[in-house]
Amino acid sequence: MIERVTVAAPDHIPALDRAAGPLPLSGAQRALYLVELLHPGTPMYNITVAVRLAGPLDVPRLRSAVARVVARHESLRSTFVPGTAPSFEPVLRIGDPAVELPVVELDVDGTESAEAAALRLAQAWADEPFDLRRGPLLRTRLLLTGPGRHLLVVTMHQLVSDGPSLQVFFDELAQGYDGEPERAAPALRFADFAAWQRARPVDAVQLGWWREHLAGAPMVLRLPTDKPRPPVVGTHGGNHRHLLRAAVMTPALRLARQLRVTPFVLVLTAYAAFLSRLAESRDVLVGVPVSARDRAELESMIGFFATTLPVLVEAHAERGFADLCRSVQAELLDVLTYREVTMEQLVQELAPVRDPGHAPLVQAFFSFEQEPIVSPRLAGLRTTAIDLPPSGAKVDLDMLVFRSATGGDDFDLTLTYRTDLFEAATIARMAEHFERLLVAAVTDPAAPIRSLPGSVEDVFPLPRRAAVAAAPRLDLTTSAHAGMEQSLVQIWREVLGRDDVGFDDNFFDLGGTSFALTAVHTLIGARTGAKTSLVSLLEFPTIAALARHLGDGPRTGPAVAEPAGPARAAGLRDRRNRLLQRRSGRGAGE
Questions:
Q1: β-pairing, 411-418 with 237-244?
Q2: Which residue, 173, 211, 202, 196, is CA-closest to 71?
Q3: CA dihedral of residues 319, 321, 325, 328 (deg, nearest 10)
Q4: Neighbours of 462 (CB within 10 A)
Q5: Is 500 helix (H, G, I), strand (E, B) or coil?
Q6: pLDDT tens digits for 309-328?
Q7: Average pLDDT of the segment spanning 253-273
Q8: What is the pLDDT of residues 19-77, one digit of tens each?
Q9: Whole-angstrom distance, CA of residue 41 vs CA of residue 127
């Protein structure tokens, strides 16, 4: 799932002085925590793996092995609490080991098979949200499915884990279950890494490369959809599984070797070409996970070491697939070279227009792994891993491809999608036409992109539902809300620490941060009694607009954003240009 490089690491990561103050979050944790604040109670950042266990299982020994892993890794004992003082940064806390491994006996009522019932229950467990403040952010449960048959379900929150962390967990679980001597806790802890990372200044050269590289790139991927896009993007998601059989993937892997590109690059290129054809856009940005495990001391740690970075794919209609693969390989190498800049920093620097209807910068993700999701083993047992993606969507479309646990060149493909945009049948057609595009591209690598399958007409057969148009934006009421405006002015002044707050000033132009916005949200509820979601404060970033929204009272439908007329759009462009000029000036003077 994660494309990685290893580089020389001359700088040493020092141990953090735990008495010096609150433990910081890493940059990636900070950005993810903000998403959780905007969309509380969602399972979209749950990472779940279920493992079939066949044979005589020693449950107490397994429980003890889980406890040993938790005791060794601070990340699995971490919780996160909101900051209460400027700059309102969240705080990381480390708790005592607390492990539960409840055993649940499967109850089958005869309407479905034991296998289907077990997977349905495991999926329900995977979709249970975590309490980030109370924890723990690891859940282990054991399902007894029959004599000598169990299903071990392990769920972690992504704030404390990533793909490689899963394998570390299962490797150490096997060592504990086998009774191997217990190893000491790692000398380096994740909090040490987070503090070191946050203390490093932003690399002006790397940031400058990204600014120049993405200049003019499309910040919104306008995919056709089944339903009008709502003003505020939702998190409800669905998953569609599709098997890419060896008959498809073996020739694809062979072509990758012939072109001297990685399989990751080849399948990413096919995915980007498919998105380009659907969106009828020459250039597309695809988010790929990039690992920060670039030194030996981080390899055996459990923690969230991943970030997402955009890959720009220039899928010109006349360009051949093989040529595009080589271009994407070069692009990905550049991205990995300049990977010290996080997605959060890119969003702040490029300052795309904040639209709650779209994820910032990229709306399509891609992950690929040449091995199964994990390779678990427990002495005396036959083990088979099953990936259980959560029913929550981070972006419009997210493709995950990894080698099937059955072996050979079969690969499992999962498309996660927003259910408020797409119907399940449409996503099924997408998977089918993506496979056709991949087969056609591998069969004739010189074929131009425009000739490949996967057009809008293929996936959205006529009559097409008017899918590209956004939901209508209504004008706000013009009634006065002077009392609310004055309350908001006072709150903004306190949180921002400045008196020059105007009714039409954008909160972020005044120096506000996303975490400062959470403090505003808390104070609005405490002082005015108004009930609103945190994401609505992004929709209405000025006092005048927010006061009108709050003064209108509860709504039965989605919140109505500010009018998106020419004047508003021109104002946003002007604000973005001013920010870029100020940042360029600071960079020139440093």
A1: antiparallel
A2: 173
A3: 40
A4: 5
A5: coil
A6: 999 999 999 999 999 999 99
A7: 97
A8: 778 888 998 898 899 888 888 888 999 999 999 999 999 999 999 999 999 999 999 99
A9: 10
Residues 6+ apart with CB under 8 A from 318: 448, 449, 450
In whole angstroms, give the CA distance from residue 404 to residue 427.
21
Q: Taking Cα atoms as reference points, which of 361, 344, 365, 367 lies closest to residue 28? A: 344
The region, left, alpha or beta by phi > 0 then psi within -120 to 50, assigned to residue 273 is: alpha
Q: Which residues pair with 476 in a beta bridge?
A: none
CB-based contact 332:366 (threshold 8 Å): no
What DSSP line would sit under 433-494, residue for residue? Answer: HHHHHHHHHHH-TTSBGGGSS--HHHHSPSSPP--SSBPP-PPPP----HHHHHHHHHHHHH
Residue 371 has pLDDT above 80, yes or no: yes
Q: Looking at the predicted structure, is the pLDDT value of residue 565 above 70? A: no
Neighbours of 494 (CB within 10 A): 13
* DSSP annotation of 159: G
Considering only residues 69 and 373, tell me which one the structure prediction assigns the higher pLDDT: 69
Q: Are 385 and 47 in contact (CB under 8 A)?
A: no
| Residues 6+ away with beta carbon under 8 Å from 497 | 86
Backbone angles phi, psi at 27, to 5 degrees: -60, -40
Report the pLDDT averaged over residues 292-314: 90
* pLDDT, position 470: 42
Which residue carries 């962390």 as its tokens? 165
CA 540 to chain centre: 24
CA distances from 96 to 21, 61, 71, 136, 169 (A): 19, 20, 8, 10, 18
Instruction: Supply the pLDDT for residue 150.
Output: 96
Residue 382, CB half-sphere, CA atoms under 13 Å: how many? 6
Query: Strand, coil or helix: what is 246?
Result: helix
- What are the Cα distances from residue 249, in Å, to 252, 427, 471? 5, 21, 40
Q: Which residue carries 């692009």 as its tokens? A: 331
pLDDT at position 354: 64
Please report, for residues 52, 428, 499, the alpha-carbon distance to residue 342 in angstroms, rounded to integers and kept in the order given.
37, 33, 32
Could you read off the pLDDT of 201-224 as tens digits, one per residue?
Answer: 888 999 999 999 999 898 899 999
